[in-house]
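Late entry, evening session. Most of the bench is empty. Finally got around to the prediction I had been postponing all week. Sequence below, unchanged from the version circulated by S.P.
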Amino acid sequence: MTEFRKLKKHRKLYSCLRWLSKHPAWLHKLARWFHSHTEWLRKILRFVCHKMRWMKYLNPLRYIKRIDQYIIKKFIGTYIYSIALIISISIVFDVNENLAKFSQYHAPLKAIVFDYYLNFIPYFANLFSPLFVFIAVIFFTSKLAGNSEIISMLATGISFKRLMRPYMFSCILLSSLSFYLSGYVIPHSNVIRQNFESMYKNKKKNTAADNVMLQVQRGTIAYIQHYDNNAKKGYGFSLDKFNNKKLVSHMTAMEIQYDTVSDSKYHWSASNYKIRRFNGYKEEIQSGAKKDTLIQMEPNDLVYSKGQQETFTNPELKDYISKQIDRGSSNVVQYQVEYHKRIAASFASFILTIIGVSLSAKKRKGGMGMYLGIGMALSFIYIMLQTVSSTFAINANLPPMIAAWIPNIVYTLIAIFLYQKAPR
């Protein structure tokens, strides 16, 4: 047995030697020379391999056994099936509701399919992804329990903690995908979907603003009497610069136009402008017909439309929040709630999975229907908590981070309680 193991261990070397034995003598000499002069290289490689042997523990496949593959396939398959089923039903109801509007506003079929529904599906699928995970876990775990498969696993010595491993692997995969989609992919598709809705569903965007005043940078205040977002043009513009609470410059312009062609941001063109600079008791006046200038504000800072925070990627959302806080803007809470909600939603899958497995791992007389009923009730309560906490953050000065994490905190306590009551 020992000799066979040695033979199996060095089978590659023996195969190489057999291949060399069939070739000319000069090849044998070359092989012997290479073997005798590279002893130092083999020692280095053995030393490196010995020191780096801990890296084998980083391989995730090391921890995935056959039973794990079985549960992961069930988990992912049920999750995809539940998403496809619910989204298909949602599309049918949405088509039935909006068909009259599509025909009224003469929406082309290509735009309906590719601009609306192709972006509608990932948005709503990702929005309710934690709940789909929850329903999928309850559905297939209760089926495993009904077939006495979980009892068999526990009877072989597998602990409930070990049984949770494939569920957690699946959650890592689904949560990572959900976070990437919500933070970097879906915001771009939301722009296309919202443009379609404003054009063909009579959901008009807010395209104008009156009497807008904001701090574009520290000590610089801008004011626009009227701004038209369609033309990217403002009327009745003024810009005041302060130094040590003293006015040092006052600029006025009849019109101001945002440069959409420029490669960089913050390029504006002022028409019929006048600049007054103050230096003690002296005053310098400059005027002209047109002047190109850099003003640290963009059209998004002047006009807010509903759902605008959903069109920003995570880096854009973070930069926008930081910029608005520096300006002292009060219209930043909904952006903070959206940012923290994207992070909290990724962790919700883990919490709801623990609840789902703990609930449905026991074999009961009620069958799968009772588990699904409990799962749907908990899902509706989770959605209600999300809505209520977000409303309190926007209207009642609740910190946005706490508002986004309240549903997860409440359900974490439920998960801990149910996990302790789960079968061992």
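Two things to note before I forget:
DSSP finds 15 helices and six strands in the chain.
The mean pLDDT is 84.
Will write this up properly tomorrow.
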